[in-house]
Amino acid sequence: MPDQSYCDRLRQDIYFLTSNGRLSEHLVDKIILQLNRVYPQILTNKEAEKFRNPKTSLHIRLSDLISHLQKKGDKHCQEFYRALQINAEQLYNDLPSRKIMSPMFFLACFSVAAGLAFFMYCWNSDPKVIGGAKKILGFSPIIIGRHVRNICMVYMEDTSRKN
Protein backbone atom coordinates (compact mmCIF):
# COMPACT_ATOMS: atom_id res chain seq x y z
CA MET A 1 0.00 0.00 0.00
CA PRO A 2 2.74 2.60 0.72
CA ASP A 3 4.13 2.16 -2.81
CA GLN A 4 0.75 2.77 -4.44
CA SER A 5 -0.23 6.27 -5.45
CA TYR A 6 -3.71 7.47 -4.57
CA CYS A 7 -4.62 7.39 -8.26
CA ASP A 8 -3.60 3.72 -8.43
CA ARG A 9 -5.64 2.98 -5.34
CA LEU A 10 -8.63 4.76 -6.86
CA ARG A 11 -8.28 2.64 -10.02
CA GLN A 12 -8.33 -0.44 -7.83
CA ASP A 13 -11.33 0.78 -5.80
CA ILE A 14 -13.49 2.18 -8.62
CA TYR A 15 -15.54 -1.01 -9.12
CA PHE A 16 -16.14 -1.33 -5.42
CA LEU A 17 -17.21 2.30 -5.08
CA THR A 18 -19.46 2.36 -8.14
CA SER A 19 -21.26 -0.91 -7.42
CA ASN A 20 -24.93 -0.50 -6.63
CA GLY A 21 -25.78 0.51 -3.11
CA ARG A 22 -22.28 1.29 -1.85
CA LEU A 23 -22.61 5.07 -1.98
CA SER A 24 -25.94 6.81 -1.66
CA GLU A 25 -26.79 9.94 -3.60
CA HIS A 26 -26.70 11.92 -0.36
CA LEU A 27 -23.21 10.64 0.48
CA VAL A 28 -21.85 11.38 -3.02
CA ASP A 29 -23.27 14.91 -2.74
CA LYS A 30 -21.57 15.37 0.65
CA ILE A 31 -18.23 14.25 -0.79
CA ILE A 32 -18.60 16.56 -3.80
CA LEU A 33 -19.55 19.49 -1.57
CA GLN A 34 -16.60 18.85 0.72
CA LEU A 35 -14.21 18.72 -2.24
CA ASN A 36 -15.75 21.92 -3.56
CA ARG A 37 -16.11 23.97 -0.38
CA VAL A 38 -13.23 22.80 1.77
CA TYR A 39 -10.84 22.22 -1.14
CA PRO A 40 -12.01 24.57 -3.93
CA GLN A 41 -8.79 23.91 -5.83
CA ILE A 42 -9.93 20.26 -6.17
CA LEU A 43 -13.41 20.94 -7.60
CA THR A 44 -14.58 24.27 -8.96
CA ASN A 45 -18.21 25.37 -8.58
CA LYS A 46 -18.91 24.46 -12.20
CA GLU A 47 -17.40 20.98 -11.81
CA ALA A 48 -19.31 20.42 -8.56
CA GLU A 49 -22.60 21.35 -10.25
CA LYS A 50 -21.84 18.94 -13.07
CA PHE A 51 -21.18 16.03 -10.67
CA ARG A 52 -24.25 16.88 -8.54
CA ASN A 53 -26.67 17.02 -11.49
CA PRO A 54 -29.69 14.91 -10.43
CA LYS A 55 -30.65 14.31 -14.09
CA THR A 56 -27.60 12.09 -14.52
CA SER A 57 -27.53 8.67 -12.87
CA LEU A 58 -25.51 8.30 -9.68
CA HIS A 59 -23.29 5.63 -11.21
CA ILE A 60 -22.29 7.85 -14.14
CA ARG A 61 -21.73 10.90 -11.92
CA LEU A 62 -19.52 8.93 -9.54
CA SER A 63 -17.57 7.32 -12.39
CA ASP A 64 -17.07 10.72 -14.02
CA LEU A 65 -15.97 12.26 -10.72
CA ILE A 66 -13.40 9.53 -10.12
CA SER A 67 -12.08 9.77 -13.71
CA HIS A 68 -11.88 13.56 -13.37
CA LEU A 69 -9.90 13.31 -10.13
CA GLN A 70 -7.53 10.73 -11.61
CA LYS A 71 -6.78 13.05 -14.53
CA LYS A 72 -6.01 15.91 -12.14
CA GLY A 73 -3.44 13.94 -10.16
CA ASP A 74 -2.52 12.21 -6.96
CA LYS A 75 -3.30 15.12 -4.60
CA HIS A 76 -6.88 15.29 -5.88
CA CYS A 77 -7.34 11.54 -5.43
CA GLN A 78 -5.92 11.81 -1.90
CA GLU A 79 -8.47 14.47 -1.03
CA PHE A 80 -11.25 12.24 -2.37
CA TYR A 81 -10.10 9.50 0.01
CA ARG A 82 -9.99 12.01 2.87
CA ALA A 83 -13.55 13.13 2.10
CA LEU A 84 -14.68 9.51 1.86
CA GLN A 85 -13.08 8.71 5.21
CA ILE A 86 -14.73 11.69 6.90
CA ASN A 87 -18.19 11.02 5.46
CA ALA A 88 -18.24 7.20 5.28
CA GLU A 89 -15.57 5.75 7.53
CA GLN A 90 -16.88 2.17 7.44
CA LEU A 91 -16.96 2.16 3.64
CA TYR A 92 -13.46 3.68 3.59
CA ASN A 93 -12.19 0.89 5.86
CA ASP A 94 -13.78 -1.76 3.58
CA LEU A 95 -12.05 -0.55 0.41
CA PRO A 96 -10.13 -3.28 -1.45
CA SER A 97 -6.98 -1.14 -1.57
CA ARG A 98 -6.94 -1.01 2.24
CA LYS A 99 -7.30 -4.79 2.60
CA ILE A 100 -4.05 -5.74 0.84
CA MET A 101 -2.02 -6.07 4.03
CA SER A 102 -4.29 -8.43 5.89
CA PRO A 103 -3.29 -10.42 8.98
CA MET A 104 -3.08 -13.50 6.76
CA PHE A 105 -0.36 -11.76 4.75
CA PHE A 106 1.74 -11.25 7.87
CA LEU A 107 1.07 -14.80 9.03
CA ALA A 108 2.20 -16.11 5.64
CA CYS A 109 5.41 -14.04 5.80
CA PHE A 110 6.14 -15.29 9.29
CA SER A 111 5.51 -18.89 8.23
CA VAL A 112 8.02 -18.54 5.42
CA ALA A 113 10.63 -17.01 7.76
CA ALA A 114 10.08 -19.69 10.43
CA GLY A 115 10.20 -22.42 7.79
CA LEU A 116 13.51 -21.10 6.50
CA ALA A 117 14.89 -20.92 10.05
CA PHE A 118 13.93 -24.54 10.75
CA PHE A 119 15.26 -25.61 7.36
CA MET A 120 18.58 -23.86 8.06
CA TYR A 121 18.71 -25.49 11.47
CA CYS A 122 17.94 -29.02 10.29
CA TRP A 123 19.98 -28.95 7.10
CA ASN A 124 23.26 -27.66 8.50
CA SER A 125 24.79 -28.23 11.92
CA ASP A 126 27.28 -25.38 11.55
CA PRO A 127 27.09 -23.13 14.69
CA LYS A 128 26.96 -19.99 12.50
CA VAL A 129 23.84 -21.27 10.74
CA ILE A 130 22.19 -22.25 14.02
CA GLY A 131 22.86 -18.72 15.30
CA GLY A 132 21.12 -17.35 12.20
CA ALA A 133 18.13 -19.56 12.88
CA LYS A 134 18.03 -18.26 16.45
CA LYS A 135 17.97 -14.69 15.17
CA ILE A 136 15.01 -15.42 12.91
CA LEU A 137 13.12 -17.21 15.65
CA GLY A 138 13.92 -14.37 18.03
CA PHE A 139 11.38 -12.21 16.20
CA SER A 140 8.63 -14.78 16.64
CA PRO A 141 6.85 -13.14 19.62
CA ILE A 142 5.22 -10.85 17.11
CA ILE A 143 3.13 -13.72 15.79
CA ILE A 144 3.34 -16.69 18.15
CA GLY A 145 3.12 -16.69 21.90
CA ARG A 146 6.09 -16.07 24.15
CA HIS A 147 5.81 -19.58 25.64
CA VAL A 148 6.12 -21.30 22.27
CA ARG A 149 9.08 -19.09 21.38
CA ASN A 150 10.81 -19.92 24.67
CA ILE A 151 10.32 -23.66 24.11
CA CYS A 152 11.79 -23.40 20.59
CA MET A 153 14.76 -21.36 21.81
CA VAL A 154 15.50 -23.76 24.71
CA TYR A 155 15.36 -26.71 22.35
CA MET A 156 17.72 -25.02 19.90
CA GLU A 157 20.16 -24.07 22.66
CA ASP A 158 20.15 -27.62 24.06
CA THR A 159 20.81 -29.19 20.67
CA SER A 160 23.55 -26.67 19.85
CA ARG A 161 25.33 -27.51 23.14
CA LYS A 162 25.24 -31.22 22.30
CA ASN A 163 26.93 -30.57 18.95
From TrEMBL:
Domain CARD: 41-99
Protein name from the UniProt record: Caspase recruitment domain-containing protein 19
Species of the source: Pelusios castaneus (West African mud turtle)
Subunit composition and interactions: Associates with BCL10 by CARD-CARD interaction.
Topology with respect to the bilayer: Single-pass membrane protein
Subcellular localization, as worded in the UniProt entry: Endoplasmic reticulum membrane; Mitochondrion membrane
Signal peptide region: none
Keyword Transmembrane: yes
Membrane-spanning intervals of the chain: 100-121
UniProt keyword annotations, A-Z: Disulfide bond, Endoplasmic reticulum, Membrane, Mitochondrion, Transmembrane, Transmembrane helix
GO biological process, any: regulation of apoptotic process
InterPro entries: CARD (IPR001315), CARD19 (IPR043574), CARD_BinCARD (IPR042146), DEATH-like_dom_sf (IPR011029)
Cellular component terms (Gene Ontology): endoplasmic reticulum membrane; mitochondrial membrane
